[in-house]
Design a protein that fits this description.
By secondary structure, this protein is an alpha/beta fold. The protein is built from 11 helices and 7 strands. Helices cover 47% and strands 15% of the residues. The chain is globular and about 55 Å long. It starts with a strand and ends in a 6-residue tail after the last helix.
């Protein structure tokens, strides 16, 4: 019996995309994509999600690619411009789950501790959670098993009684190995359908 639901945030409930900001700095889309793929990479950003300071992460990259210093510093200097809107259809699913009163609902997110307060201020629904575990604050991130255990232990959650929703299949696989039931998120419509199928939501 599922009594706990755990949401990822980015790409599930909140839209975040560095292209929103970098399109103001690049006139050529191909050049921008090359910069995102080779310089300010996902792996580099995840180091900050894992607890490295924004300053240390930035200086590391500037030393490595000094010719791109201005563009690199813009990543966190203008980070708020990368933060899009909430995915309202998914937020509505969250609202229905919360209003049902049947579940404890938590968030487990890979997010820098330094930028997460911006999201907290912008998105009221983040206050609906019974608890949020932020990777940057814990200095570890998904898919590290210990990061999932922080949430499970802190809030007394049993893996077999929980459901985890994440858009990253790597993170889904890690949760499943811990005995957590999962839904690999691709859209709000798909999520709603799967929640109905397992009797978490009614039609």
């Amino acid at each position: 019996m599922i009594n706990t639901i755990i949401f990822d945030l980015g790409a599930v409930l909140i839209d975040w995309n560095p292209r929103y900001m970098y399109r103001t700095l690049f006139s050529d889309e191909t050049e921008m994509e090359k910069f995102l793929a080779e310089i300010v990479t996902s792996d580099w950003n995840e180091e900050q999600d894992g607890g490295r300071s924004l300053q240390d992460g930035t200086e590391h990259l500037v030393q490595k690619f000094p010719q791109h210093e201005q563009l690199i510093r813009a990543f966190y200097g203008r980070w708020e411009e990368m933060l899009g809107e909430a995915f309202h259809d998914t937020v509505e699913i969250f609202r229905h789950l919360k209003d049902s009163g049947r579940y404890k609902i938590y968030a487990l997110t890979n997010w820098s501790a330094e930028t997460f307060p911006v999201a907290l201020e912008r998105f009221d629904f983040l206050n609906w959670f019974d608890g949020i575990v932020v990777s940057g604050a814990e200095k570890m991130r998904k898919p590290t098993p210990d990061f999932y255990h922080i949430l499970l232990n802190r809030y007394g959650v049993k893996p077999e009684e929980s459901l985890f929703i994440d858009d990253n299949y790597r993170n889904i696989l890690a949760a499943e190995k811990l005995g957590i039931q999962c839904i690999h998120f691709t859209s709000a419509e798909q999520l709603n359908k799967e929640l109905v199928q397992i009797n978490i939501l009614s039609k």
